[in-house]
Design a protein that fits this description.
single chain, 308 residues, alpha+beta, Bacterial polysaccharide co-polymerase-like, 2 domains, four-stranded antiparallel β-sheet, 12 helices, 4 strands, rod-shaped
Length: 308
């Protein structure tokens, strides 16, 4: 063993002795050693960060920009039957017997309908955009998680899962109907059209139900000779007429529009600045970690060669 190697070994042994304190110069040297290692590998780190930023830029270029439009609505309750039901009291049994509902329309019913696949299919077919939505699904890089067997089912699943969002604020009761699409104007148009179609379907459903009940009650009034039954049926008939009048006289039957959807000026996804910042951060961290690892391995190999 030569004299230089002996000095290095003696110095290492002194530093490892528990009773010997290291000098301030040694502490400073050990604290800046990782920085020096990173500096020696600066080209490696610069290359890693550049690759990460290049991949992020490619992602931003290849990924379609999505614009979100959101309509704010408030569920309405039909009070035409509920107020009279409280006054009728003993007639509630008669109403349920003949299949007439005097209670308030549930707020959950229009929410359940707008989230249903049947409503989505009717909306897509009415707008004639089934091929457009299905083609957008096929162009996605990852198309896992679908069991659709035809174009309509594929479009409906994609629309419900990735394009349409319906949420409700439990405190205020407000419902938010949102659409994310590559065209800001179409996103706003579709969001408003969904609200309009739901209101129209619920209104027509209420009209058909009221007409059916009115026809049945008039038959009962004409066929019975009981004055009490005629009076009871007359009050029920009045309730159904009020319900029909409400459905015929308003366009916002289920959802009262608070704020219509408007085209967004800025895309909501992908967010370029955020993507680039995260790419720089992860690129720098991974490159620095790999640089320190490579430098450590190089040092170990050098020690093994010197020892041998």
């Amino acid at each position: 063993m030569d004299e230089k190697t002996s000095r290095v070994v003696e110095k290492s042994e002194r530093e490892l002795q528990p009773g010997v304190a290291s000098s301030p110069h040694a502490d400073n040297s050990s604290s800046i050693e990782p920085v020096l290692r990173l500096w020696r590998r600066r080209r490696w780190i610069f290359t890693g960060v550049s690759i990460a930023l290049a991949l992020a830029a490619a992602y931003l270029v290849l990924t379609p920009k999505l614009f979100r439009a959101e309509a704010v609505v408030l569920p309405r309750e039909s009070n035409a039957g509920s107020g009279l039901a409280a006054q009728l009291g003993q007639l509630s049994g008669l109403a349920s017997t003949v299949g007439i509902n005097l209670a308030q329309t549930s707020k959950e019913e229009p929410l359940a309908i707008v989230r249903s696949k049947g409503f989505t299919l009717r909306f897509l077919e009415a707008r004639k955009i089934v091929p457009l939505i299905a083609d957008a699904k096929r162009k996605q890089l990852f198309t896992f998680g679908t069991d659709a067997v035809n174009e309509a089912d594929l479009a409906a699943e994609h629309f419900m899962r990735d394009i349409l969002s319906v949420s409700q604020d439990k405190k205020t009761g407000l419902v938010y109907v949102g659409i994310e699409w590559t065209d800001a104007a179409k996103a706003a148009e579709w969001a408003n059209s969904i609200v309009g179609q739901l209101n129209e379907e619920m209104r027509l459903r209420a009209l058909r139900e009221a007409d059916r009940n009115i026809s049945y009650l008039r038959q009962q009034v004409d066929q019975t000779d009981s004055v009490a039954l005629q009076q009871s049926a007359g009050k029920l008939l009045e309730s159904e007429l009020n319900k029909r009048m409400l459905a015929a006289g308003t366009g916002e039957y289920s959802f009262r529009i608070i704020d219509e959807a408007r085209p967004s000026l800025r895309p909501t996804s992908p967010r370029s600045v955020r993507v680039l910042i995260w790419a720089f951060f992860f690129g720098a961290v991974l490159s620095a970690f790999s640089a320190l690892t490579l430098d450590l391995l190089a040092g170990l190999r050098a020690k093994i060669r010197n020892a041998s």
